[in-house]
Amino acid sequence: MSKLIYFDAFSGVSGDMTLGALLHAGMPLDYLKAELAKLGIANYRIEMNRVEQHSISGIKLDVILEQPELETHRHLGEILAIIENSALAGRVKDRASRIFRALGEAEAHVHGVPLEQVHFHEVGAVDAIVDIVGACIGFEYFEVAHFYCSALPLGSGFVNTAHGILPVPAPATLQLLANSGAILSPQLTLRNGSQYPARSEMVTPTGAAIISTLCRFTQPAMQLEKIGYGFGSREFDWLNALRLWLGESLPESEAHKHRKILAEQMQDSSSFEHDEICGLETNLDDMSAEGLGYLMGNLLAEGALDVYFSPIQMKKNRPGVMLGVLINTADEARIAELILKETSAFGLRVSQYRRYKAGRNFREVEVSGAKVRLKLKFLNEVEVEAVPEYEDVATIARRTGRPFREIYEAAKTAPEIKNPPSA
To answer: Which band of pLDDT confidence, cut at 50, 70 and 90, is reported for residue 422?
Structure first.
C-alpha cells in the first residue's frame, strides 16, 4: 500500500490553507522551518495559530514579510533556479517546480505572452514560494505518492490584483482548473438565505496550481490515518477550512472487499434496495448540439441508466460540455466503446457508485376516458408518492385540449382501475 492525500475542499483551497492543514495533521513546525531554510530566501517569518470555527479546531498559518518594501517580483526562471539550487529533497524540488511551471503556463496563456516573459506578481512573492514549497515539503514528510481532490467551490465577485480588479475566480486560477479537468461545485442558497460558495475568492492561484498539478478529481478508496484542518482568513456561515485526509491506498481487490462488506452491512440495517453502478465521464469541446442529442438517444437506447451534459470551460478558453453517463457495471466496456466511437473523446473517466433505491411499483388510473400509469414510490413498504407518466399525460392533453397540469393533477387523485377477475 502507498500513501495518499485527499483534498476535501468544501470551502475552497489556498496555499496557506494547505500548509496549515499539513501542520495540523502532524508535520512539526520546526521541521518545516528547517526545510524551508534550504531555499536560501529571507525577509519572512511564519506564524502558526490554533483557531476554532463552529467548534472545530485547526491551524491558521500566515507568512509575514518582515520588510515588504524590499520584496521584488520574480520571473519563472528565477523561482525555478531558487528551487533547483536548494538543498531540498529531489521529489520536493520536482513537485514544486512542476507546480510553478503550471502556474507560469496559465499566466502566459491568459496574458497572451511567451512563457519566458511571464512576470509573476503576487504568486512570485516570498509568501507564495513558501506556501507552495512548504506544501511539497509536507507531502514528502508524509511520504504522499497519490493525490486526489473533491469538487471545488469557486466563489464569485472580484479580487484586487497587481493587474487590477479581476473577476473571481482569477483568470489564471480558472485556466489552471480548466487545464486539469477540475470538477466544480454548484452555487447553492442555504436555509438562512446565504450563498454557498460565498461571494469571495474560494480558490486562490497557489491553491489551484497545487491541486491542478498533482490531483485527480475523484475520491479514492483509502484507509484513513490522519486528518488536518487548515483555516482561511474569512469567516462564513460554514466552516472555512481545507480538510486534508491522509492515509494509505487500498489495492483494488481490497477496496472491492470493503465495498462488499459495507454493502452487506447496509443490507442488514436498511430497508432500502441498493446496488453498485458505474459512471463514465468525458469532456467535449468540438461536438455540435445535434451530435450530442443523437449521442444521448443512442446511449439511452443501448441501456444507459441516465445521460446528462454539464457546461464547463476547457483548455484554450473553449466552452465545452462534460458528458456523464450512469450505467450498470456489467455494461462498462460496451458503453465506453460506444462513447469513444461516437464522440471525439480520446479517453474516459470511470467511477463506481453505490446507489440506494426506494421501492417502486405501478398502477393504472383513468382520466378523460384513457389510462394513465402512475409510478409509485415506497419507503419502508409505505407509499409516499405517485408520479404520473409523462407520455400518458401528454397524450391525453393533446387529444382533449385540456392543460397538461390539469391532467397531471387529476391522475394523481383518480381511483385505481380495478381489473375484472379472470374466468
So the answer is: very low
